[in-house]
Design brief:
The structure is a homodimer of 290-residue chains.
Chain A: E1 3-14, H1 16-24, E2 36-42, E3 45-51, H2 59-66, E4 71-78, E5 94-98, E6 101-111, H3 129-144, H4 153-168, E7 171-178, E8 183-186, E9 192-197, E10 202-204, E11 211-213, H5 214-217, E12 223-228, E13 239-240, E14 246-250, E15 253-257, H6 265-272, E16 288-289
Helix pairs in contact in A: 1-2, 3-4
Chain lengths: 290, 290
């Protein structure tokens, strides 16, 4: 199994602390040593860093741990190869452009017998089931929203939930996806959520003897959601997602949640805090650390 | 004007030496301080590094100068903004996937009034005329080769020359493009070529007090073509390309050249050395430095 991580924040934030914990699982505290990748979204554009070296030893991972790149949405992945050899081409996140926005996608799981027909404009570059699933998701979204310029997450979310459920029939399909506006997280077997807001604690990593006083870099108005396969800190309240759930986050807040038939917790969570749309979210440009 | 650089090689080669000279032009020996990018092709896949900081001072550029990434095809660009603000989104090279291969594209010049209609699957993420031209080129190629899986350079080259000439009617259109198999170089105003093969010299950079004995890292069978807006070394025989020319390089050798009506040199060059196809090129995996 690979390990996923994502951040959605209402201000551009660095992920050097979280990435330090995640990268340790790439060959040191975990067996996910077949490469890694991090995608930083700056509105429509995304910068992607991938390497086929273990995240715990890669020079590029070392660079990313020590040179904070601030972004409102970040996706990261450390790989344990199941399908496709250890190569750049098979490192997540994968990237494609749709309607003038970069979409990133990272997957944890294993899909069997999922070989859909893909058009010439969306074909996998590597050999993973994951990139194939991403290409199919985007192809379906393109077909559904053919007439629209760039659909908002409110339109995309229910379609994404429907498509995710269809792919999940083929196996474990924990995934993260983003277009830089919204972060989509789908749980199949394991995905955990953490909401951070004022007052910010001193966080302690699970995988390293490292702590960070989050109150130093974050102001009272800052808020962020972290998503990870397994909790990255040992003194914060990470909540597991339920199987089959799709949640959507915008500017550090949950804005949408699918409600599979056997699930009430998701509905409760959604009603406990009023839904916030991207338009309603107060955005500022102060620094934040995660 | 921006500055372009590319390498085509028959073995995976590092470009740390050339990039050191190019990066100096990004704010120190040149005025191209609005960001930079480097694309490394590994067969169908491409890793892209971009930054909106000056290449002469960027921490990422420093990383790339000191951590050689070996690839058979490399494209690089340092930017002096003419259209679009200084942001990641506007840093070349740009990347898109077509038929399961990453295509990279970098441009030097300025296009006026070039606003073609682009489909939803190929729209610029940034604000440059360059990315718009790239999207249009790929859109046209997709339409022309709709029925083929992935056309070979022999099919793509004449179409690319025709499309390049069409875009060049709108202004200066020096560009580099690659799908990891072939490197396409189109000159409008300024582009220089250098063929390196055994025996390899000690090369001296134009922009730095730095020399490299190319014979140390390169074997008798290694060969490479370098393309740059202005020569990067001061003791090698860089040849200017003619206006309107498109040349194609595979595995460190020129394999195709367009012949604009006013141009005979290109024809002579093409006949002086027999054309080599990708299939015919002897490929090995020894190290090489450029």
């Amino acid at each position: 199994m690979c390990q996923l991580f994502a951040l959605s924040c209402n201000v551009p934030a660095a992920v050097t602390f979280s990435f330090t914990g995640l990268a340790a699982r790439g060959g040191r505290t975990g067996e996910h040593a077949d490469g890694f990748g991090v995608a930083f979204h700056d509105d429509a554009a995304c910068r992607l860093f991938v390497d086929d070296q273990p995240a715990s030893r890669s020079a590029l991972a070392e660079f990313l741990r020590h040179h904070p790149i601030r972004a409102r949405t970040v996706l990261a992945h450390i790989r344990k190869a199941t399908q496709g050899p250890v190569r750049w081409a098979n490192c997540h996140p994968f990237l494609r452009e749709w309607n003038g926005r970069h979409w990133s996608f990272a997957h944890n799981g294993d899909l069997q017998g999922f070989k859909p027909r893909l058009a010439g404009g969306l074909r996998p570059v590597g050999q993973t089931d994951s990139e194939r699933a991403f290409c199919w998701l985007l192809q379906q979204l393109r077909q559904r929203f053919r007439s629209r310029q760039a659909p908002a997450w409110q339109q995309v979310a229910p379609v994404m939930a429907e498509l995710a459920a269809e792919v999940a029939r083929h196996g474990r399909f924990n995934f993260l996806a983003s277009d830089g506006q919204a972060l989509y997280a789908h749980a199949s077997t394991s995905l955990h959520l953490l909401q951070r807001r004022h007052p910010f604690p001193v966080a302690h990593l699970v995988d390293e003897e490292l702590s960070l006083d989050l109150g130093v870099d974050n102001g009272p108005g800052d808020r962020m959601v972290l998503v990870a396969t397994e909790p990255l800190t040992r003194n914060e309240d990470w909540a597991p997602m339920a199987a089959g759930e799709l949640r959507v986050f915008v500017a550090g807040e949950q804005v949408w949640c699918s409600t599979p038939p056997d699930l009430t917790r998701c509905q409760e969570a959604a009603t406990a805090r009023p839904l916030v749309t991207a338009r309603q979210s107060p955005l500022s440009f102060a620094a934040a650390g995660g």
